[in-house]
Amino acid sequence: MSVAVLKKAGDAPISAGETGVPVVLPKRNRRRLLLGAIAFLVIACGGVYGRYWYAVGRFIESTNNAYLRADQVAMAPRVSGQVAEIYVKDNEDVTAGEALLKIDPRRYEMTVGQAKATVDAREADVAKSEADLRQQDAVIAQAAAEVETARVNSDLAQKEYERSAALAVRGFATQQKNEQTESALAQARSTVNLKQAALDAARQQVATLKAQLAQANAQLAAAKESLGQAEIDLSDTVVRSPITGRVGDRTVQLGQFAQPGTRLLTIVPTAQIYLVANFKETQVRNMRPGQPAEISVDAYPDLALTGTVESFAPGTGAQFALLPPENATGNFTKIVQRVPVRIRVNAPEKAAPAFVPGLSIEVSVDTKAASAVHTAGAGQ
């Protein structure tokens, strides 16, 4: 006996029973199965995401308020003059010590020549003072010899006078002879005093000559310092790059008159780029130097980079603003502050042709290690 199964509008056969007769399920049952499957997938995905968030995601602090930076060096001359030569072009790579431009050196070369002539003159003064001092030593030796000769003559005159006086007492010598020997003795003693005074004067002259020599040496030292300064000024006419990098913001023109301190161009060390991320103050609680970071460059979305937290600014961005906010007012509004965080970029060499300072960055810092330590400390 066959069993007839009537199909209602919208029904479809799903399966057959034991008798081989198709079993028809309503359309709403299919919808329930589909919704159930979708709900299951949503719950499963939510569980996976929740587990990931609990294990990893809740420790990630992210911000898109970040930019690439580099410690660029503004190049300016130390001396004034017209720019005579320019050795580099815009955006050209340079090495440390490479010449960038040259100031007209003629005036400084003349100054060096004058300074050298002054040094030669001062060296001649020193040589003359040393010669005068050596000559004075000879004068002193001569004066000492004359003093010694005068003393010998004085001693001889003393003996002559004593003999003459003894003979005059006994009547063997005339009074005139006695007076002559006495006069000769007086003259000999005067000569000794005169020669001794000349010797003292010669010795005192030594101090004067030594002072002149010291003055000449001081003038020579000053002349050498002036020569050294002139040579430094001459060498400074060539402006050299202090670091390896790339030329940027070149405003110098050939023939331009440059003053000391005038910014002519900038050297950017493109191989030493870092980024500064401005995190909210509520995000830096568990941040520590050394934590890893993932970096995404807006200009290169397919370039995956990593980094490391290096340091934190000693104040929020508002503290270093040109006009710091004054919150001691009646209309105070609390605003979440930003803390600049410096992150070292582990970028491979030649990562991108325009990987330069100023690019916008999205950065995520993994604070899991610090969070675990903080949680353990709070539990104790």
Please explain how this structure is put together.
With 380 residues, this protein is an alpha+beta fold. The protein has helices at residues 27-55, 106-170, 175-235, 368-379, and strands spanning 12-16, 22-25, 60-69, 73-75, 81-86, 93-94, 99-103, 238-240, 245-248, 257-258, 265-268, 274-280, 292-297, 300-312, 338-345, 360-366. It folds into three domains: 73-104 and 237-266, OB fold (Dihydrolipoamide Acetyltransferase, E2P) (Beta Barrel); 106-235, Helix Hairpins (Orthogonal Bundle); 273-379, Beta Barrel (Elongation Factor Tu (Ef-tu), domain 3). Helix 2 (106-170) runs antiparallel to helix 3 (175-235). The chain is elongated, with a radius of gyration of 51 Å.
Describe this protein with a few key phrases.
380 residues; alpha+beta; OB fold (Dihydrolipoamide Acetyltransferase, E2P); Helix Hairpins; Elongation Factor Tu (Ef-tu), domain 3; 3 domains; 6-stranded antiparallel barrel; 4-stranded antiparallel sheet; 44% helix; elongated; disordered N terminus
Please render the helix and strand layout as text:
Elements: E1 12-16, E2 22-25, H1 27-55, E3 60-69, E4 73-75, E5 81-86, E6 93-94, E7 99-103, H2 106-170, H3 175-235, E8 238-240, E9 245-248, E10 257-258, E11 265-268, E12 274-280, E13 292-297, E14 300-312, E15 338-345, E16 360-366, H4 368-379
Antiparallel strand pairs: 1-2, 3-12, 3-16, 4-11, 5-7, 5-10, 6-9, 7-8, 9-11, 12-15, 13-14, 13-16, 14-15
Helix pairs in contact: 2-3
